[in-house]
Specification:
Blueprint: H1 2-24, H2 31-45, H3 62-67, H4 72-91, H5 95-100, E1 109-111, E2 116-118, H6 120-133, E3 148-153, E4 162-173, E5 180-191, E6 199-204
Parallel strand pairs: 1-6
Antiparallel strand pairs: 1-2, 3-4, 4-5, 5-6
Helix pairs in contact: 1-2
Length: about 220
């Protein structure tokens, strides 16, 4: 067992040396590009390293956070579009369409009125069983539902991708019956795309929902 640990550590160290040497040895690559590659390499090769030691964590002064120019209107529109597609797919019990709106990777959570489901396989099984008993198609005006109270956190703050939190109406099965009811829920979304924005819902009433004042999106009505 001890030999396996030593071999694994040696292999990881050697791999890191080779990768780092390759990335930093590219004479035509800009420093910013090299840093970007190193951050992703570190994140995926050393996922269990102490979080505070990882280089992709960006420490931004509060005054800089407040003055950064961000197109919040476009981001909110993209998030709202995903939310509407999610609600539509859920109401129509369309698992294929629903999956496209979700980030089903590790850490996905789905909170209900009675508990929380973890992991996509468990969540999928819960939904398939729930849809047999609970029908939400009678609930009207869902097309006008909107998310509010947005928080958007840039990538490399807590994770190497953009994150968002918001609240909005959600379908639930009533406690003690099969009736479909609506209540406000918290949504946590991720944007892991390296090209065009692709927001996906990762948690509903989950543990990663955040309300850090530094990342509160200004209310356009004020």
């Amino acid at each position: 067992m001890e030999q396996r640990k030593i071999l694994s550590l040696a292999t990881t160290t050697l791999l890191l040396i080779v990768v780092f040497a390759h990335l930093t040895g590219c004479g035509d690559v800009e420093d910013e590009t090299v840093t970007e590659r190193l951050r992703f390499t570190e994140f995926f090769l050393l996922p269990t390293a102490p979080y505070y030691r990882k280089s992709y964590i960006e420490h931004i002064p509060d005054e800089e956070v407040a003055t950064r120019q961000v197109n919040f209107e476009a981001k909110i529109a993209a998030i709202q579009e995903v939310y509407t597609a999610f609600i539509k797919a859920y109401r129509e019990e369309d698992m294929s369409a629903l999956t496209k709106t979700l980030d089903t990777s590790q850490g996905i959570e789905w909170g209900t009125l009675t508990g929380t489901f973890h992991g996509w396989n468990n969540i999928k099984g819960f939904l398939e069983a729930k849809w047999i008993k609970t029908d939400c198609k009678e609930i009207q005006n869902w097309e006008n539902w909107e998310l509010t109270d947005f928080y958007i956190r840039p990538k490399y703050i807590k994770a190497p991708w953009e994150e968002a939190s918001a609240t909005g109406p959600m379908f639930f099965q009533a406690t003690g019956s099969f009736e479909c009811v609506t209540q406000s829920a918290s949504f946590y979304l991720t944007n892991k795309s390296t090209k065009s924005p692709k927001w996906q819902i990762h948690q509903i009433n989950g543990s990663r929902y955040f309300t850090d004042p530094k990342y509160k999106v200004p209310d356009p009505k004020n």
